UniProtKB/TrEMBL annotation:
Pfam families: AMP-binding, AMP-binding_C
Entry superkingdom: Bacteria
Pathway(s) served: Lipid metabolism; fatty acid beta-oxidation
Record keyword Cell inner membrane present: no
InterPro entries the UniProt entry points to: AMP-bd_C, AMP-bd_C_sf, AMP-dep_synth/lig_dom, ANL_N_sf, ATP-dep_AMP-bd_enzyme
Protein's organism: Acinetobacter radioresistens
Upper taxonomic lineage: Bacteria, Pseudomonadati, Pseudomonadota, Gammaproteobacteria, Moraxellales
Name the record gives this protein: Long-chain-fatty-acid--CoA ligase
UniProt keyword annotations, A-Z: Ligase
Amino acid sequence: THQNLLSLVRMTGDYLRAHNSAFNQQDSILTAIPLYHIFAFSVNFLMFFEGGSHNILVPSPRPVSNLRPAFEQFKITWLTGVDTLYAGLLAEDWFVQNPPELTCAISGGTALRPATAEHWKAKIGNIIEGFGMTETSCAAMLHPPISIIRQGSVGFPLPGSEIKIVDVQGNEVPLGSAGELCVKGPHIVQGYLNRPEESADTFVEGWLHTGDIAQLDEDGFCYILDRKKDMVLVSGFNVYPNEIEAVIAEHPDIIEVAVIGVPDVQTGEAVKAYIATRNPSLFTDEILAHCKEHLTAYKVPKVIEILPELPKSTVGKILRAELRNLQQQLQSA
């Protein structure tokens, strides 16, 4: 509703102002995400419109080199995007050699890879990570824009909202344990149009059940482990694709990576990794050796497949669902 969106704008603005990261008429935000996406509509458009800031729209942001004129013509102070956008900019010499003086860079929509965050920090500064979805009118949590970033954390709930982490029975889990993240607040939508059964399953007693697996640390910082539906069950062990993808992404020859679960006679499911590489002579054995060095044995991919490019959404988010469809076609062939 309009009230959900206005609440989101107020809550996010209050959060940033509380951490000395207010924006005003002197700021310019680069919008490389389509405005029909909830991230760009609520944050880039509504929130910065309310603050009187300039919005620099880039209708065709891919390839990343299409962003160059905007950075050269305007003094960009705020940037939002997904991991692939930040990784793509870091691969551009024109950007790295003359980086913008950003007030803040915000990542959302998909997990921010540690390798991307570390490389960006070395060249430009911190990226703060947030979490949200269409059902939260965009944002639900945001890491505070402070000098010391807790890598992998999406921070705290926005002011005026609540979160809890529950098990499959709906009971809150002990601190530090993993469970499904639930959110409550004035920015949460009322339900799905003409889908009463799905609404009843997702919105329970005012709580939005996000379908994301998360955990809290002792200071209340929240960490998103993965989507429930993306989790791989190997010999009874829960394997989170984000963890494996983060390890593979550390290899210098990797451009993109995505992990899915595939059927396996011995373990029920096994891990399969799809990669895109900048080195045509890279062997999968080298990636496997890298994984074995940094991962427990059951988390090491059983299969690695190299693709020219991984399927992505219009905002640059890698689509694991399309890779699962590709795998199903391979199995049925």
